[in-house]
Specification:
Elements (H helix, E strand, L loop, with lengths): L1 H22 L3 H25 L6
Helix pairs in contact: 1-2
Keywords: Membrane, Transmembrane, Transmembrane helix
Protein name: DUF2759 domain-containing protein
Length: 57
């Protein structure tokens, strides 16, 4: 279940990176940040749908 947490943290950091690179007008950085956001965002959504939310023990 730690995989969902790691994927979601990477997705959140990719959102911040995308906004920062767009603000600085860094198009190559924005391209890679968007790619990271798309891939890890998709992995996050599909992992949550397949395995569910992490539970606290």
């Amino acid at each position: 279940m730690g995989l969902v947490v790691i994927f979601s943290l990477v997705t959140i950091l990719a959102i911040f990176g995308l906004f920062r690179s767009l603000k600085d007008k860094n198009l190559l950085g924005a391209f890679f940040a968007f790619g990271t956001l798309a891939v890890f965002g998709w992995f996050t959504v599909m992992t949550v749908l397949e395995q569910g939310f992490p539970t606290a023990h």
